Amino acid sequence: MHKQTNFKAVDFFCGAGGVTCGFRQAEIKVLGGIDIDDVFKETYEKNNPGSKFIHNDISTLKFKDLKDKLGISIDDDDLIFVGCSPCQYYTNLKTDKTKSEDSKLLLEDFQKFVDYFNPGYIFIENVPGFDRSKESPIGRFKQFLLQRNYVFDDRVVNAKHFGVAQNRRRYVLIATRVQDKISIPDGDKENIKSVKDVIGNYDEFIPVEAGHVDSSDFMHTVAGLTEVNLNRIKKVKKDGGNRLDFADDNSLQLNCYIDHAGHTDVYGRMSWEKPSPAITTKFRYTSSGRYGHPEQNRAISIREGATLQSFPKDYVFHSNSLSVIGKMIGNAVPPELARRIVKNLGLS
Questions:
Q1: 206 touches 220 (CB < 8 A)
Q2: What is the pTM of this model?
Q3: Cβ contacts of residue 168 below 8 Å, gap of 6+?
Q4: Which residues are catalytic, by number?
Q5: In the beta sheet, which residues pair with residue 32?
Q6: pLDDT tens track for 193-232
Q7: What is the DSSP code (8-state) at residue 241?
Q8: Which one of 58, 211, 251, 340 has the fewest beta carbons within 10 angstroms of its own beta carbon?
Q9: What's the domain count of the chain?
Q10: Is the residue at 32 inside a domain?
Q11: What are residue 176's DSSP bridge partners?
């Protein structure tokens, strides 16, 4: 069996480096990450020294250029290709798909690199709907893997079973042509981390008010609240309350929710003893979901969102735009999910 330290990886669609961070924690050398958006470059490279950021659209990236930049070779049994492509097009949520139309065939672009380089291992993570959408290329990709003599395992997992304090369901596929079989680990369904476990220490996450600005690298920065939204969160019961707590107040109730019992996570608070809901790109806003702090009258901070995503507390996000940082965090693969899956692939 190989030693873990012999492995090296290339992180396609790397974003701010969630998978790269997790793989590095598992002692796998990540040679570099590729992304079409250079807004991630500084965050990726400064947090993952030695891993090179390649700013490129993979549909136009030449095989030789990737070879030259990262020093990879064809038929390397120790090479892992990571393909966690942007996935909004296949989400189960009822959203406008037109903006994400361009991303729906990224897996086919990734497949071309797999076909050419023939890496020993493949890791893919995506939204749960990715394996069920009629338009998804994943079925064709799995047929391709079989034709190339890869074995694989794929299923929907929940990040809360992999050390992430978050109820986040994701589709995962792992494949290899080096071993006779491969399987996604079951995870730990007994020891589930709670919101309190990871952001409940007030010495680290000092109590702050809505609109607080933290100019340090810790970024315990909190979005401001309008007066009406501040009054709403004040009415929501601490430790897990929801918008029904202010439904009988005509000055606070929203017209769209009159006589509507669903979507109670909106304007809700997290519960201390449960995992958080899935951290999205809009986790900074109480109006976007159950992103209210369990007891303080505010949404969770940038750092609290990143910590619930399992980023190390010294992982620094570089951008002048808090909206961009929200996307870096919300769109990332939780590093701890990536670390635990790759650590249990029989690679050590």
A1: yes
A2: 0.91
A3: 158, 159, 160, 278, 279, 334, 337
A4: 87
A5: 10, 52
A6: 999 999 999 999 999 999 999 999 999 999 999 999 999 9
A7: -
A8: 251
A9: 1
A10: yes
A11: 121, 151
* Residue 285 near residue 291 (C-beta atoms within 8 A): yes
CATH number at residue 108: 3.40.50.150
Instruction: Give the integer Cα–Cα distance in Å for 103 and 118.
Output: 23
Give every CB contact of residue 260 below 8 A, 6+ residues apart in sequence.
none
Return contacts of 51-57, CB within 8 angstroms, 24+ apart: 51/11, 51/17, 51/20, 51/24, 53/14
Nearest-CA neighbor of 87 among 339, 332, 342, 336?
Answer: 332
Q: Among all chains, which residue has been given the structure tokens 């070879």?
A: 67
Nearest-5° Cα angle at 329, 328 to 330 = 100
Query: What does DSSP assign to residue 76?
Result: -
333: pLDDT strictly greater than 80: yes
**Within a domain: 309:** no
**What is the extent of the structural domain holding 125?**
4-191+331-343
**Tokens at residue 26, please?**
């598992």
- Contact yes or no for 316/43 (Cβ under 8 A): yes
- Asked if residue 119 lies in contact with residue 81, where contact means CB atoms within 8 angstroms, the answer is yes
In the block, tokens 């929501």 appear at: 236
Residues in the chain: 348
Listed residue (287, 342, 284) closest to 309, CA to CA: 284
Q: For the range 284-291, what are the long-range contacts, defined as Cβ-Cβ under 8 Å and sequence gap of 24 or more? A: 284/222, 284/223, 284/322, 284/326, 285/223, 286/225, 286/229, 286/232, 286/233, 287/229, 289/265, 290/242, 290/265, 290/266
Residue 282 lies in a domain: no
Three-state SS string across 19-52, please? Answer: HHHHHHHCCCEEEEEEECCHHHHHHHHHHCCCCE
Residue 266 domain-assigned (yes or no): no
